[in-house]
Amino acid sequence: MGKVTISTLDKMKAAGEKFVCITAYDATFARLVSEAGAETILVGDSLGMVLQGHDSTIQVTVDDMAYHTECVCRAAPDSLVIADMPFMSYTTPEQTMVNATALMQAGAQMIKMEGGTWLSESISMLVERGLPVCAHLGLTPQSVNQFGGFKVQGRTPKEAKSILADAVEIQDAGASLLVLECIPAHLAADISSKLDIPVIGIGAGAGTDAQVLVMHDLLGLSSHSARFVQNFMEGQDTIQGALKAFVDAVKSGDYPREEHTYS
Ligand code: KIV
To answer: Its annotated pathway (predicted)?
Structure first.
């Protein structure tokens, strides 16, 4: 398919073609994700939970992210690799610039930050200097202590209005992509149709332009299981088969189904 860029994803959104993102943290799995046909790889700070064994992503550092981003980028030269900015590494525009630069120099093509309107200034600053940004709204795991747990967001009219307003502002600030996590399917579909930029969902229903899952969840390796997770190892003999089954299911519209969505 050649090197995937943000233009590839923009064209896929315009054509109504779904694309796929899977997390990876090392070279071997990055290669498998790329070979399975996922257009994008997220070096997520979920590595704090699935690799390091923490109960949240709070402990992950910029050095951790840069290390794993380098490992992934070496093995997946054709994928668009997005690297997470970890907890408290983007509290001011200046700090954001320094830490985002470290992840781009580790090989990422885009960085991801969790949060709404307060990020606008940092997003504009990075984008004006040629550093593309993916934003992340809804259940933003770095705010787990603020939320009092990993809880579905956007269920009240006030919360839903605020997530939609944040999404529009983030797009206006120059973000290229948006991740929506654990929000009602109707809200995610509404935001995806209102925005020009591609929207990637996780626990956000079938109405987004793309889907992402944490690799360990889709391989059935995680100790917990959220409603939106499907174990794609079921019916497969190999990890390669499971990754391909996820990619195919997203592209054909077979995942996520009603049973995976929140209302
Ligand atoms: O860190 C991560 O893996 C993520 C996904 C859950 C979207 O942010």
So the answer is: Cofactor biosynthesis; (R)-pantothenate biosynthesis; (R)-pantoate from 3-methyl-2-oxobutanoate: step 1/2
